[in-house]
Amino acid sequence: MDSLTWALLITGGVGVALLVIALVLGEILNLGHVDADGPFSLPAIAAFVGGAGFIGALAASLLPDGITGGGRVVASVGIGLVGATPLAYGAIRLTRGLMGMRTDGTLTDTDLLGAQGTVITAIPGTGYGEVRLTVGGHQLKYSARAPEPLPAGTPVFVTDALSATAVEVVSTAFDR
Amino acid sequence: MTFSPTLIAIAGIVVLVVLLVLLILSRIKVAGPNQAFLVTGQRGKSVTSASGERSTDLSGQKVVMGASVFVIPVVQKLHTIDLSSRRIPVGIRGAVSKQGIKCDLEGVAIVKVGGNEGSIRAAAQRFLNQQAGIEVFTSEVLAGALRSIVGRLTIEEIIRDRAAFASAVAEEAESALTGQGLILDTFQLQDIQAEGSYLADLGRPEAARVLKEAAIAEARAKQAAEQEQLLAQEAIAIANRQLNLKQAEISAEIDAAKAQAAAAGPLAQAAQDQQVLLEQEKVAGRTAALKERQLDTEVRKPADADRYRIEQQAEANKNAAIFRAEAERQSTIAAAQATAEQARLSGEGERARRSALADAEAIEGEKKGEAERLRRQAIAAAVESEGAADASAILARGQAEAKAMDQRSQAFATYGEAAVLDLLVKVLPEIVSAASAPISAIDKMTVISTDGAAGVTKSVAANVAQGLQLSSDLTGVDLGKMLSRLGGASAVEAAGRTEPADGAAARSAADRDGKARTIPVD
Fold first, then answer.
1. Of B143-147, B189-193, B372-376, B508-512, which gets the smallest average pLDDT?
2. Where is this region: Disordered (chain B) (predicted)?
3. C-alpha to C-alpha distance for A44 and B27, rounded to whole angstroms
4. What strands, in cross-sheet order, belong to the sheet with B86-96?
5. What is the C-alpha separation between B154 and A65, in angstroms, rounded?
């Protein structure tokens, strides 16, 4: 095994070491104040370095013995860099894809509008009663106000979200 | 063992890819159900308001609940807010109610960070790094709110009207807590104590009423229980009576059945016996018939046959006898004739013989008579001489007796009354004995007399006297006089000597009579 191959393998090992350190130490490691989102993110850099090293070493070990000297070095490194580029790109794409992945939306006050529920504590003409609302599959209890007194058990419809915990409702009972 | 550079390089590439993927995936964070993530660090989107001003919204400050998020290291920062409920004790002292009564309250509030984006942002701004302080802050805020609530309600409403209390709490919480991103899940009073004995007095009428009703209910229940018990006992008694009646009925039936069963045996036995007897009777009848027939065949017919045979035999015998008798008669007649002839012949011979014999006997008799006459003459002479001797003897004795009598009568004549008296003295005891005989024959005598028992001896004496008088009248001899002249005792001895003369005279008379009888008649 010649020195060139060794050097390229070590380069690849550096890349692997970077990934291991990043995995183990996580966010603690700070590789400079660089925008990590994009081609200069740690996974991209590590993928590029490691990929270049290992792929170069692979090329060096497989090149015919006829190629020697500077030509051999150039050829090996070149193959390594070329081979490492799609690896780094793959890492960047993966990161980007995960950053934009879909998650459940967080409940906001505006989601309450139009929700339907039931009065669980009678709503007086002035002041708050309690209603249970079904919002996004959740059963949530809110303080509620209504333009007219509503007894417990009355089905209601939310017309306004007064605050994070209070809504304004109207009755949807038929016989009123 | 040595590795070729090619293999090492390939292995390195593989390891590199794996670690790369792991690193990237490790940047995905997943929020728990009780957690909310705030990811900060990204730049918000640019928004142009209606008035044309440009600003950035809050989209760079991402709120995530119960979901996963990719966090880019270094450029993004992840914050966690706990959405769990927090139990917050709330206590106030000396709160004044609507009626002006002071009271102490203790309650507990369940508070959590609100579950929507606005609440999480507000809470994150206030409590992100001091989440442990939520309890203290909230407790103080709620204490003030509670004091305000108590001031708006009467104590009865606080205790009884849950809706009113909840409404008041919601109103207070709305202003006090919602701004901080907290929501009040529930608020419950644990204890309320009023000044003095207000609360105790509130319950007293009800307690008294309840006590009264309890007592009434207890009494009624007791009454009902007693009544039910009595009814049950009555029912039991009735049931017992029915049971006893039924038992007695059953017992009677059983007894009847037993008796019937007991009788059934003998009845069946009797019926069977009767049947047997009938059969036996039939058998006996048959046997009798058989016997009869046997008798007929074995006895009567043979007897008849015998009888017939015997009759025939007898008839034959009779006839035979008749014939035989006839034959005998004829033979006898013949024989008699023969005998008569023979007798006539022999009679003539006998007559001749007898006449010879008679002649012989006549001669013999004459001789015998002569001898007898001579003998009897000798005997008569002997008796005649003997009689003459006896007669002379008797004559001699009679003469001697007659002589003695003569001498005795001479003695009587000589001695006179003395001899009579001697005789009388000998006879007198016999007379007295005879006179007293009737009295001695008396078994029981009652004497009615003025003289008493001496009358009896008097009557004996009277009888003797009457006897003497009677003999005097009959004989003409005055015995009384003779007795009264009982003076010359010398004459008595002479009377005793004349006695043998009388005996000799009697004997001579007897001898005469005896001589007359002893004269033989032949």
1. B508-512
2. 494-522
3. 14
4. B86-96, B102-113, B182-194
5. 102
H helix or E strand, kind and range, residue B199: helix B198-294
Alpha-carbon distance B58 to B121, whole Å? 10
Q: CB neighbours (10 Å) of residue A101? A: 11
Instruction: Give the residue among B1, B17, B4 at the shortest CA–CA distance from A60.
Output: B4
Which run of H or of E encompasses A160? strand A155-161
Residues near B314 by Cβ (< 8 Å), separated by ≥ 6? none
d(CA B419, CA B284): 113
The Cα angle at residue B77 between residues B74 and B81, in degrees rounded to 5: 160
Tokens at residue B379, please? 């005997």
Token representation of residue A30: 């700070």
Asked if residue B98 lies in contact with residue B154, where contact means CB atoms within 8 angstroms, the answer is yes
B191-195, B302-306, B454-458, range with the lowest pLDDT: B454-458
Q: How far is CA B263 from the centre of its chain?
A: 20
* Model pTM score: 0.48
Q: With bands split at pLDDT 50, 70 and 90, how would you rate the model's confidence at B503?
A: very low
Q: Pick from A8, A107, A128: which is nearest to B171 by CB?
A: A128
Rounded Cα gap, residues A136 and B268, in angstroms: 100
Residues of B whose CB is below 8 A from A140 = 115
ipTM here:
0.77
Q: Is the pLDDT of residue B131 over 50?
A: yes
The residue written with tokens 């995995």 in the block is A23
For residue A166, give the chain B residue with the closest CA: B174
Find out whether B157 and B164 touch, Cβ atoms under 8 Å: yes
Q: Do A121 and B173 touch (CB under 8 A)?
A: no
How far apart are the C-alpha atoms of B373 and B380, rounded to whole Å?
Answer: 11
Say which residues have a Cβ less than 8 Å from residue A37's Cβ, sequence separation at least 6: A95, A96, A99, B72, B75
C-beta atoms of A27 and B164 within 8 A: no
Q: How many CB pairs under 8 A join A and B?
A: 176
Q: What is the average pLDDT value for chain B, to the nearest integer?
A: 81
Sheet of strand B62-65: strand arrangement: B62-65, B35-40, B77-82
Cβ–Cβ contact B10 with A under 8 A: yes
Task: Annotate B9-26 with DSSP letters as a single string.
Answer: HHHHHHHHHHHHHHHHHT
pLDDT tens per residue across span B461-489: 777 777 777 777 776 666 667 667 665 54
Interfacial A residues in 73-102 facing B (CB < 8 Å)? 87, 91, 94-95, 98-99, 101
CA separation for the pair A12, A19 (Å, rounded):
11
Q: What is the mean pLDDT of residues B271-280?
A: 84
Chain centroid to Cα B438, Å, comes to 83
3-state secondary structure of B275: helix
